[in-house]
Design brief:
CATH topology of the largest domain: Diaminopimelate Epimerase, Chain A, domain 1
Strand content: 25-35%
Oligomer: single chain
Largest sheet: 7 strands, mixed
Radius of gyration: 27 Å
Order of helices and strands: EEEEEHEEHEHEHEEHEEH
Shape: elongated
Helix content: 10-25%
CATH architecture of the largest domain: Roll
Number of strands: 13
Number of domains: 2
Structural class: alpha/beta
Distance between the termini: 30 Å
C-alpha cells in the first residue's frame, strides 16, 4: 500500500446536495485491495456551497484534480467517484473523471494527478477508540452504568448470558464503572464471590470502563493458577497485580497488563 496526499470530503447531512470543504488529510491508496463498489452510476460534479469569504469555493479553477479508479465517499446515494478537484487545499468538487475534467474547474493552470488503479478512501481520525476492542465489545454483556446501575443488575445481566451457554463457556462483559453505581453500597469493585453466585461453572471476565481492570470469578482464578501469596503475573500472563484480601486470597480483581493476557 502507498499513500498519496489527497483530501477528505464530507457534506451537510441535512442538505444532501451540499458538499463541505474540509482540510487536506492523508488518504490511504491501495493498488492491491480496492473497496468493493456498489452502484457506479455517474453522479456528476457537486461544487462546494459556501460563501466567497471561505476562499476555497470562490476559486475559479481547481489547483489540482485527482483522478483514480475509485474514490470511496462513504455516501449511500453516491458511494464512489473517479475524480476530486482541489483548490486552496480544500475539495471543491467530486464527480466522474470525464465530466470534471471538462468542467470549469479544469483550467489551464490545473494540475492533474492520475492515481491509476488506486482505490482512495477518506483519512480516518481514530480518537483512541481502539476499534478492534470496540467491535468485540458489541458481542459482550453490557454492564455500563446506563445498562446496569447496581451490582444486582450487573449480575442479572451476566446470569442471562450464562443461562444461554453450556457449562465451561466463557462469558465476557464490559463497562463496569463502580463510581457510577446508584447505591453507595454498590460503589465498589466486583468480587469473585459476586460472580460465583451467578456463574459457578462458567469462566467470567468483566472489564472495567477504563479497560485496565478486570474482575473474574473463582473458576477462572483456579484455571489461571492464581492464589496463595502470589500477587503478580509472570511468564505468559505478563506483569500485573492480583488484588488480595486481608487473608491473602485473591478477590477476583486484576490490574495492569496481566489482566489483558488473561481476559483475551
Amino acid at each position: 500500500m502507498r499513500c498519496a496526499k489527497v483530501f477528505l470530503f464530507s457534506k451537510i447531512p441535512k442538505f444532501r446536495s451540499i458538499w463541505l470543504a474540509v482540510p487536506a488529510m492523508e488518504l490511504a491508496v491501495s493498488h492491491d485491495h480496492c473497496v468493493p463498489c456498489a452502484g457506479l452510476g455517474a453522479w456528476g460534479v457537486r461544487p462546494v456551497a459556501t460563501s466567497p469569504a471561505s476562499g476555497s469555493a470562490a476559486a475559479a479553477v481547481a489547483d489540482r484534480i485527482f483522478v483514480a479508479k475509485r474514490f470511496v465517499t462513504l455516501e449511500e446515494d453516491a458511494p464512489t467517484a473517479t475524480a476530486v478537484a482541489v483548490a486552496d487545499g480544500r475539495i471543491v468538487a467530486v464527480g466522474e473523471k470525464d465530466e470534471l475534467l471538462a468542467s470549469h474547474w479544469a483550467g489551464e493552470s490545473t494540475a492533474v494527478t492520475d492515481l491509476g488503479d488506486a482505490c482512495v478512501v477518506p483519512g480516518f481520525v481514530e480518537s483512541h477508540a481502539h476499534p478492534p476492542m470496540v467491535g468485540s465489545s458489541l458481542e459482550q454483556v453490557d454492564v455500563t452504568p446506563e445498562a446496569t446501575d447496581s451490582i444486582e443488575a450487573v449480575l442479572a445481566a451476566i446470569k442471562a448470558r450464562v443461562e444461554s451457554l453450556p457449562a465451561g463457556s466463557w462469558v465476557q462483559a464490559r463497562g463496569y464503572d463502580q463510581g457510577n453505581m446508584t447505591a453507595k453500597a454498590d460503589q465498589r469493585p466486583l468480587l469473585a464471590a459476586d460472580l460465583d453466585t451467578v456463574a459457578p461453572e462458567h469462566y467470567v471476565v468483566v472489564v472495567s470502563n477504563s479497560g485496565h481492570i478486570t474482575y473474574v470469578n473463582s473458576l477462572l482464578l483456579q484455571k489461571a493458577g492464581i492464589g496463595g501469596a502470589d500477587t503478580t503475573f509472570t511468564g505468559s500472563l505478563g506483569n500485573g497485580v492480583v488484588v488480595m484480601d486481608g487473608e491473602g486470597k485473591p478477590t477476583g480483581e486484576l490490574q495492569g497488563s496481566g489482566e489483558w493476557a488473561l481476559s483475551h
